[in-house]
Automatic annotation (TrEMBL), chain A:
E.C. code: 2.4.99.18
PANTHER family assigned: DOLICHYL-DIPHOSPHOOLIGOSACCHARIDE--PROTEIN GLYCOSYLTRANSFERASE SUBUNIT (PTHR13872), DOLICHYL-DIPHOSPHOOLIGOSACCHARIDE--PROTEIN GLYCOSYLTRANSFERASE SUBUNIT STT3B (PTHR13872:SF1)
Organism phylogeny: Eukaryota, Fungi, Dikarya, Ascomycota, Saccharomycotina
GO BP of this protein: post-translational protein modification; protein N-linked glycosylation via asparagine
Organism field: Eremothecium cymbalariae (strain CBS 270.75 / DBVPG 7215 / KCTC 17166 / NRRL Y-17582) (Yeast)
Protein name: dolichyl-diphosphooligosaccharide--protein glycotransferase
From TrEMBL, chain B:
Annotated membrane topology: Single-pass type I membrane protein
Biochemical pathway: Protein modification; protein glycosylation
Keyword Signal: yes
Places the protein is found: Endoplasmic reticulum membrane; Membrane
Membrane-spanning segments: 389-410
GO terms for biological process, alphabetical: protein N-linked glycosylation via asparagine
Name this protein carries in UniProt: Dolichyl-diphosphooligosaccharide--protein glycosyltransferase subunit WBP1
Domain of life per record: Eukaryota
Length: 761, 426
């Protein structure tokens, strides 16, 4: 009889768990669909447009062609070896999904596959987080963590529908790799370790952030060794993971020989060596006396450290190992990039995180997170060391770079779930109310859920204390104390349930207001308060697509390269890939110099159109004039004697656009293109720039002789200018414009003066 | 079919009459106050013999009776401007008319004289980089025999062989001179003698010595040509015996009867004949580039023979600059080829460019932008074909071999009892 009840309860548990997980899937997907419902099924932002374009290429060509894709429509005239410089995991996955759906008779548009890719994988991330946390604590904590992971804004920010970016799949793979690593490390199973390596390979193929795994797992192993927790299980897990993972990762063309040549990967190699030595040491330790072993240990340690460190220095110096990359340095010194590599500093997602962002992205998890880490310290098992290491490292990284908040989020969810589930283990346990025999039965496994957990873990301190209190109280006034206990439990768990409810509320609110805008289409309001959509970007890109030659070359700042490639299908000079700093500096220089120099520079690159983003009419602050100083800085890095940042500031040292702006600023191409005909919107003499709150007069802008306006979007956000064709009489276009002006004004020069000419030889 | 027939017929008709490559309709504007057309009968006779249809318009009395354009349509192919006494030609004719006409491909012959230089022509010439001396100043040379303002100069002094290359003869010139800018499109034709200078009665010098020019040409980027002659008496009947041959050639050049070349297209392919479309180029491919040139000899397109055609393979900077060799020849085309050459070991989007610009000849630019891709993953030599890799290959196989040997030995070795080492020490 009892056994039957037990099995029924087990089945009920499985059923409940399945329902919960399915609901988590539902929550994860549906909360990411705001953007599709509000706007439409559209690819967001910048990088996703490239991924989308590459995916389209992959589904219309073979994988072989994709792998060897030479893209002659970007980075003109250098071209880009796209197949060899991208992480193909994302595109390949969606191509497989697309083909799979076609084969079962569901011909879905590739765009929809791409748009809904991130939400679908967010569900899998939640599942992986569940498995991961189950390894750390138990299924209860796992379900909580999965629930958190499904809706936490820190993750949603990069995985709403349409956000078709590498991170969309990478976080899933990150959690899967870690989950298998924890399993492998606990059991020493080669199978799990191999799975970890395979998912690591998948991760390498999908995101450059794989380096995080490459360093975190060795660090975990290293710390365990330092703690004296070396075990043969660790040895087999790590060596298997490292060898298979490294060899597999080298199959990705973009990674190539980096795992054995770049400093970023040296930690993993070093720990691989260390594990061998420790394994050997352990073996020797078992065979010689402890006194001799000490000598051996000290000697070998000294030799290893000296040889290792000097060797690393030597081969780095000789150039066999690539030195640390700039992005790596900027992780440690937040000012490094600003001084040395403006191109990295200019990216907004590489900026340090503002403190409120932590609460904004994680709400109450952010204060449960340290509590969880503390509780993990109390109960320091090998896998807990992993979570602690991960938390400490990523807390730092997330503080340095906004985008790394994404990698911190999973571990926040896990730690917070750990803390909360510990709390709920005690305070949500009302099983004694049912037990008639009193407090002595509190710890007996009457509740199957408690039984399941009790088997797995030794009783923690808290529950031990509680049970001790419970047993002592039972003897005297059990009913009164029991009542108090119920009240306490209700109060505490009620509070936290309220927090949970608030969390869900917050997540939904943040997702719908902050993270669901495609940024290609901007939401706004009409004067009467009704919602409106500012669609200037697409308007301009479609104009380009429809009205320009198929092989026209468009020069714009690199931010818009991927969008021009994806939406307008025109050749660009630079794009968001930013692989060639000099080429970007060329565009920066063209924007920063006077129009005649810019004209010749752009013509040398066969440019037909120049595209600038201007927010002065609308008050859109992310426009090119606000990015202009980065263009100046980047080109100054290459041509320090031609472009000088100081010259772009007013005499008082301000960054101004109005009459007090410096002449270099007013003569720069960017200034002229942005403000060309701007005052005509107002009274024709002066216009008011709503972004910079400054008045721009006609005299500031001057004439535009070398370019002609080809297109200006509805709200003036996108302005496209065409390079005039060179004068057929070989005059410079400034003189042509001057002559035309004089002709139209009827200026007559009666007096014939002898021209000043160079000697003709 | 019928259409084709008519086109052929049209071609034949054109071929029978037209000598210049672009057209024969000519408008001549003159000022009857200072120009008597009868004095130029020999000049017009040679032009009409070469089937030019000249419309003479005097600008003084019939001010608005001529039109260069009918709406957007250009009515004349050539324009001859004689000197005018007034500063303006007419209300609807100014410098922009001339600029537009030239931009549309019309050829202009401007003749000015110390007594006749109107503003439109002067500003137009200034735009080209020709600065004729102002009114009332003329070229003199006191080192000459005879009158100081009649200059005799030999055609051996002609600066451009594409304009005139006949044996030398004496020319008689009297009129203005001009300063020239340093523009690359200018074609200086006849410089003033070293001992001459240009002065007015106030003593201002405009040009001195050979920095002054008597006749200058200009060819714009669309191959329209303009010639300036600083003297109307240079063309008159009384000196036509000495100047005639030169003038004829000068006008032939001006109205594109000679020194006109064209490209009949280019082609490039793999050296084994496979085209780019079938098989795009990759780095270090061996390819052949060929371009054909024809020259207009006044009645036919004939092969254009030269030895200085160059081909460039550019990606911003030239990676190759090859002088082309003459290869096959057809009735009307001379082909030039690079021969087989290897593409650079650098992928990118390259421009296949022939930019043939010689002073006095029509400009020819042939441009093709093509991508040269990198090697695909399976186009590198296999590892076993590289001798240096044998070291690594043998180490791989020896490790595999030794590891399997070790496994064999390990699995077949007798098991000895080995108590848990770690347990003992921890």
């Amino acid at each position: 009889m009892k056994a039957e009840v037990h099995t029924a309860l087990c089945w009920a548990r499985v059923l409940f768990k399945t329902i919960i997980i399915i609901s988590i899937f539902g929550a994860a997907i549906s909360s990411r669909l705001f953007s599709v419902i509000r706007f439409e099924s559209i690819i967001h932002e910048f990088d996703p447009w490239f991924n989308f374009r590459a995916t389209k290429y992959l589904v219309s060509h073979s994988f072989y062609e994709f792998l060897n894709w030479f893209d002659d429509r970007t980075w003109y005239p250098l071209g880009r070896v796209t197949g060899g410089t991208l992480y193909p995991g994302l595109m390949t996955t969606s191509a497989v999904i697309w083909h799979g759906l076609r084969n079962i008779g569901l011909p879905v548009d590739i765009r929809n596959v791409c748009v809904l890719f991130a939400p679908a994988f967010a569900g899998f991330t939640a599942l992986a987080t569940y498995e991961f946390t189950r390894e750390i604590k138990d299924a209860n904590a796992g379900l909580l963590a999965a629930g958190f992971m499904a809706i936490v804004p820190g993750y949603i920010s990069r995985s709403v529908a349409g956000s078709y970016d590498n991170e969309a799949i990478a976080i899933t793979l990150l959690m899967l790799t870690f989950m298998f690593w924890i399993k492998a490390m606990k059991t020493g199973s080669i199978l799990h370790s191999t799975f970890a390596a395979l998912f690591y390979f998948y991760m390498v193929s999908a995101w450059g952030g794989y380096v995080f795994i490459t360093n975190l797992i060795p660090l975990h192993v290293f710390i365990l060794i330092l703690m004296g927790r070396y075990h043969s299980r660790l040895y087999s897990a790590y060596t298997t993971w490292y060898t298979i993972g490294t060899i597999a990762s080298m199959q990705i063309p973009f990674v190539g020989f980096l795992p054995i040549r770049s400093n970023d990967h040296m930690a993993a190699l070093g720990v691989f060596g260390l594990v061998q030595l420790v394994g050997l040491g352990n073996y020797i330790k078992g065979n010689v006396s402890s006194k001799r072993f000490k000598v051996v240990l000290i000697l070998s340690l000294v030799v290893i450290i000296v040889v290792g460190v000097s060797g690393l220095f030597a081969i780095t110096f000789l150039g066999y190992i690539a030195p640390w990359t700039g992005r790596f340095y900027s992780l440690w010194d937040t000012n490094y990039a600003k001084i040395h590599i403006p191109i990295i500093a200019s990216v907004s997602e590489h900026q340090p995180t503002a403190w409120p962002a932590f609460f904004f992205d994680n709400q109450f998890l952010i204060w449960l997170f340290p509590a969880g880490v503390f509780l993990l310290f109390l109960d320091l098992k090998d896998e807990h060391v992993f979570v602690i290491t991960y938390s400490v490292l990523c807390s730092y990284f997330a503080g340095v770079m906004v985008r790394l908040m994404l990698t911190l989020t999973p571990i926040i969810c896990v730690s917070a779930a750990y803390a909360l589930s510990k709390l709920f283990d005690v305070y949500l346990d009302f099983s004694e109310l049912w037990s008639t025999t009193g407090a002595a039965d509190v710890l007996t496994p009457s509740d199957p859920q408690a039984a399941g957990t009790a088997e797995k873990r030794p009783p923690s301190k808290i529950s031990a204390n509680v049970s001790a209190a419970a047993t002592s109280s039972s003897s005297s006034s059990s009913s009164r104390n029991g009542f108090l206990m119920v009240i306490t439990k209700l109060l505490v768990s009620g509070t936290f349930l309220f927090y949970l409810w608030l969390f869900v509320y917050h997540c939904t609110w943040v997702t719908s207001t902050a993270y669901s805008s495609p940024s290609v289409v901007l939401p706004s309001r009409n004067p009467d308060g009704s919602p409106a959509v500012i669609d200037d970007f697409r308007e301009a890109y479609y104009w380009l697509r429809m009205n320009t030659d198929e092989d026209a070359k468009i020069a714009s700042w690199w931010d818009y390269g991927y969008q021009i490639g994806g939406m307008a299908d025109r050749t660009t000079l630079v794009d968001n890939n930013t692989w060639n700093n000099t080429h970007i500096a060329i565009v920066g220089k063209a924007m920063a110099t006077s129009q005649d120099k810019a004209y010749h520079l752009l013509r040398a690159h066969d440019v037909d159109y120049v595209l600038v983003i201007f927010g002065g009419v609308l008050g859109f602050s992310g426009d090119d004039l606000n990015k202009f100083l980065w263009m100046v800085r980047i080109s100054e890095g290459i041509w320090p004697d031609e472009i000088k940042e100081r010259e772009y500031f007013s005499a008082a040292g301000d960054y101004r656009m109005d009459a007090s702006a410096s002449s270099t600023m007013k003569n720069s191409l960017m200034y002229k293109l942005s403000y060309y005909r701007f005052p005509e919107l107002f009274d024709g003499q002066q216009g008011f720039d709503r972004v910079r709150s400054q008045t721009i007069t006609v005299d500031d802008i001057g004439t535009l002789d070398y370019f002609e306006e080809a297109f200006t979007s509805e709200n003036w956000m996108v302005r496209i200018f065409k390079l005039k064709s060179p004068d057929h009489l070989g005059r410079n276009l400034h003189d042509v414009a001057k002559l035309n002006m004089e002709q139209s004004l009827g200026v007559k020069k009666r007096l014939v003066k002898k021209p000043v000419l160079d000697l003709r030889v | 079919m019928l259409k084709l027939f008519f086109i052929n017929l049209l071609c034949i008709v054109l071929w029978a009459h037209a000598l210049p490559v672009h057209g024969v309709k000519t408008l001549l504007l003159y000022d009857s106050k200072i120009t008597d057309l009868n004095e130029y009968s020999k000049l017009f006779a040679t032009l009409q013999k070469r089937s030019y249809k000249i419309e003479f318009v005097a600008i003084d009395d019939s001010n608005d009776q001529f039109k260069l354009y009918d709406g957007e349509k250009r009515l004349y192919d050539n324009l001859i401007l004689f000197p005018t006494k007034s500063r303006t030609i007419s209300s609807n004719f100014d410098v922009s008319t001339l600029l537009n006409f030239s931009e549309d491909g019309g050829d202009v012959l401007t003749i000015t004289s110390p007594g006749g230089l109107n503003d439109a022509v002067r500003i137009y010439l200034n735009q080209l980089g020709i600065y004729p001396s102002p009114r009332d100043s003329k070229l003199v040379d006191y080192f000459q025999k005879g009158a100081s303002d009649v200059i005799s100069i030999s055609t051996s002094e002609v600066l451009n062989r594409n304009v005139f290359s006949e044996p030398s003869m004496e020319l008689v010139y009297s009129g203005s001179s001009a300063l020239l800018g340093n523009g690359e499109l200018l074609v200086p034709i006849l410089a003033a003698p070293r001992t001459s200078f240009n002065t007015n009665n106030k003593g201002d010098r405009w040009t001195v010595g050979s920095q002054g020019y008597l006749i200058a040409g200009f060819q714009s980027l669309n191959n329209a040509r303009t010639v300036w002659i600083g003297s109307d008496s240079f063309l008159k009947d009384d000196v036509f015996n000495s100047n005639g041959l030169f003038i004829e050639d000068l006008i032939k050049w001006n109205f594109r009867e000679k020194a006109v070349i064209k490209s009949v297209g280019f082609s490039h392919s793999h050296s084994n004949g496979i085209s780019y479309d079938e098989h795009p180029y990759k780095v270090r491919d061996s390819i052949v580039y060929e371009v054909g040139f024809s020259e207009w000899n006044g009645s036919d397109w004939v092969p254009f023979i030269t030895d200085d055609v160059q081909f460039e393979l550019r990606m911003i900077d030239p990676y190759y600059r090859l002088t082309l060799n003459a290869s096959r020849q057809t009735k009307d085309i001379q082909y030039y080829t690079t021969g087989e050459f290897k593409l650079p070991d650098h992928h990118g989007v390259f421009t296949f460019l022939t930019d043939y610009r010689r002073s006095g000849l029509s400009y020819v630019t042939e441009k093709d932008v093509k991508a040269i891709r990198h090697l695909a993953n399976d186009e590198y030599p296999r590892s076993y074909k590289i001798t240096n890799a044998w070291v690594y290959l043998s180490s791989i196989f020896s490790v595999i071999f030794l590891f399997s040997m070790f496994l064999l030995v390990y699995m077949n070795a007798p098991i000895t009892e080995n108590v848990g080492v770690e347990k003992k020490n921890n």
